[in-house]
Hints:
- By secondary structure, the chain is an alpha/beta fold.
- It has one domain (26-195): 3-Layer(aba) Sandwich (Rossmann fold), CATH 3.40.50.
- 32% of the residues lie in helices and 32% in strands.
- It has helices at residues 2-19, 33-36, 89-102, 167-195; strands at 26-28, 51-55, 59-60, 67-71, 77-85, 107-109, 116-128, 134-145, 149-161.
- Strands 1, 2, 3, 4, 5, 6, 7, 8 and 9 form a 9-stranded mixed β-sheet that branches.
- The longest helix has 29 residues, at 167-195.
- It starts with a helix and ends in a 7-residue tail after the last helix.
- The relative contact order is 0.19.
Amino acid sequence: MRRRTWLLAGLVALGGCLLRTPDSPRFFRPGSATLDATAEDEVDPPAAGRIAIRLRGVRSEPFLRERIVWRISEVEYGLYEQRRWIDLPAHYVERALRTRLRATPGLRLANDLRAVALRVDVLAFDDVLAPVHAANVALAVALEDPVRGRLFVRTFDARAGIESADPASMAKAMGQALDDAVAQVADAVRLSVQAHRPSSPR
């Protein structure tokens, strides 16, 4: 009788382990001041002296989806099981870029096919675990003028230190890195289009 009781207790314990549901996913949003300031309008009204920029749809590496990416070296990556972004990293980057470009003196967003085109690919949106715990956002950017051709092709990289192992700390740092990265892009676009702007006739 005692053996049967112990066997039954063991089966109940084993069944509990096998049938235990996994922890529910936790969803995060980058703590970005630029995202918080996102405007709804797609294009800006024409304004004298402001150069039109057409932002193409932002793309990303295939693994940069809802599940948050961790990285411990340049060659080893992984995906957290329960940690997810509420939206895709590419969408965060596109919204932040639109806001930052609108706030950049001398630029305006447009859908005109004759405008200077900005192409952006998200290369990294990673929780870097080693050697230093940091949030990393890297963007590959190409700026193309329909008349003068390609103005530049560059990669912009931004990092922000993560203060603790709490995922919320990572999300805040990722927002800071995102703000830094899109600011770098907007400044580079402004300097490039101003440098290549045709001189007005005297």
